Amino acid sequence: MMTETINLGKALNHGLRRALENDPKVVIMGEDVGKLGGVFRITDGLQKDFGEDRVIDTPLAEAGIIGTAVGLAIRGYRPVCEIQFDGFVFPAYNQIVSQVAKMHYRSKGNVRLPIVIRIPFGGGIGAVEHHSESPEAYFAHTPGLKVVTCANPADAYSMIQQAITSDDPIVFFEPKRRYWEKGAVDLDAPLSGAFPLHAARVARPGSAATLLAYGPMVKVALDAAAAAAEDGRELEVIDLRSLSPVDYPTIFESVKRTGRAVVVHEAPGNLGLGAELAARITEECFYSLEAPVLRVTGYDIPYPAARAEEEYLPDLDRVLDAVDRAFGW
Amino acid sequence: MAKGERDKAGNDVPAGGFVQLLTPDGERIDSATTADGSIYTVDFSDEEYRELYRDLVTVRRLDAEAVALQRQGELGIWASLLGQEAAQVGSGRALRPQDMAFPTYREHGVLYCRGIDPIMPFGLFRGVDQGGWDPNEFRFNTYTIVIGSQTLHATGYAMGVTMDGKTGGTDGEAVIAYFGDGATSQGEVNESFVWSGVFNAPIVFFCQNNQYAISEPLERQTRVPLYQRAGGYGFPGIRVDGNDVLATYAVTRAALDNARTGQGPTLIEAYTYRMGAHTSSDDPTRYRISSEVESWKAKDPIKRLKAFLTKQQLAGDDFFGEVDETAGALALDLRERVLAMPDPQPVAMFDHVYPNGSPEVAAQRNAFARYQASFEGSGH
Question: Which intervals of the chain form a coiled coil (chain B) (predicted)?
Answer without folding.
Answer: none
